[in-house]
Amino acid sequence: MKHSKYGINTICTHIGEIEDKQFKGAVSPIYVSTSYEFDDVAVKRYPRYFNTPNQEHLAKKIATLEHTESALIFGSGMAALSALFLTFLKSGDHLVVQNTLYGGASHFIREEFPKYGIEFTFTDGYQVSDFAAAIKPNTKLIHIETPSNPLLTITDIKGIAELGKTHNILTSIDNTFASPINQNPIDFGIDIIMHSATKYLGGHSDILAGALAASDELIGQIWHVAKNFGGNLSDYTVWMLERSMKTLALRVKKQTKNAEKLASYLEKHPDVKAVFYPGLKSHPQYDLAKSQMHGFGAMMSFELQGHLDALKFQKHLKLIKSSMSLAGVESTVLSPYLTSHALLTQEERDAIGISNQLIRFSVGIESKKDLIDDIEQAILKTKTEAI
Ligand SMILES: *Cc1c(COP(=O)(O)O)cnc(C)c1O
Q1: Above 90 in pLDDT, residue 192?
Q2: What pTM, to 2 d.p., does this model score?
């Protein structure tokens, strides 16, 4: 656990910037070289070694935000996750992984692990006891995701970290939904933190990237594997990500505030059946969320009452776009039954509480009133159509 002496906005703005000694420019220069003259043979700078100036410096910002010693930046969230899994799992090893998992991660495990002879168990639920029940003698890693998609369930981070330590098993977390602004799992004892930087770290729906943050020792182990897989991010995009991250705390705090307000508004709405947001007192794990998150985040989902067609409602939204990605400055919605959970049967979706009326909502930075107005007019239009 490494804490900076600086406040969160100062870290976002300044940590890891590269001083432009030559021209004294205000922002970090971009170093695009793939070849660097040796001054010490031991240090070979090369983009795929994750050690170009831009990569090394931005990694410092990510590590500082996550209170870790080290970080690595990848070409995508999945590149980060695959490097994590394939560093700590080899043939004959076993992974315990949360059942409510990002779809791409779930596909990676189910489609690729059998080829490597790696065993895995998806938990039955998201309580610590569900993870404990899945542990085997050859379990080498426990991987969690909290808050989860799309029902925003909360997993007890400290409980999982302690479970891992008791059994001498490493623990990792997908911290994408919370972002380092709202959750720092290392402070609760988790070993490795993974991000899809495509989401909040990038924040403008124009960068695909990923990151891992951990101790020097664990990042060193990951580095040895990751350089062989070759999943680094181009330095042009590293530079873009640095620019985006200067406003990370400003964006995420505003998004979180909007989400809190919108969740209360939706919860009181007669046309809304249920709202899933960890910041609502009605969320079954409100207290747990409060104990491990700095803020409740800007992802939520809600279920429209049966008389409103959820797809028509989304079509009638004008400001809020119906789109696949999340965490950008713009608000977006989608139907999980048509996207992340489309491969499940209706019965399977019913069993985990994902109805056709459920809408996932990634809350942006727009003015709260305009978001509410947009939802109101869309509900009204959908109702009028139904008559
Ligand atoms: C998007 C996402 C990923 C995958 O990241 P990519 O950048 O698309 O590879 C992983 N986990 C979560 C929670 C995500 O939202």
Answers
A1: yes
A2: 0.97
* Closest atom of ligand 1 relative to the 79 alpha carbon: 9
Angle between helices 216-229 and 77-88 (to 10 degrees): 110
Q: Whose Cα sits closest to atom 8 in ligand 1?
A: 77
Residue among 76, 82, 107, 196 whose CB has most ligand 1 atoms within 8 A, to mutate: 196
| Ligand 1 center to 210 CA (angstroms) | 8
Cβ within 8 Å of residue 222, ≥6 positions away: 72, 83, 84, 87, 192, 212, 214
Which of 364, 3, 44, 51 lies closest to 238 in space, CA to CA?
51
Q: What's the CA-to-centroid distance between 377 and ligand 1, angstroms?
A: 32
Check: CB of residue 70 under 8 Å from CB of residue 215: yes
Quick check: 160 and 142 in contact, CB under 8 A?
yes
* 188 vs 169: CA distance, rounded Å: 15
| Average pLDDT of the residues in 300-320 | 96
Give strand pairing partners of 120. 95
Lowest mean pLDDT among 40-44, 78-82, 99-103, 148-152: 40-44
Q: Phi and psi dihedrals of 298, rounded to 5?
A: -120, 20
Domains plus CATH for the chain?
Answer: 8-245 (3.40.640.10), 248-386 (3.90.1150.10)
Reported as half-sphere exposure (CB side, CA atoms, 13 A), residue 263 has a value of 25
Terminal Cα-to-Cα distance of the chain (whole angstroms): 58
Is the omega angle on the peptide bond into residue 147 within 30 degrees of 0, that is, cis? yes
* 387, pLDDT greater than 70: no
**Nearest alpha-carbon partner for 273 in 246, 320, 245, 307:** 307
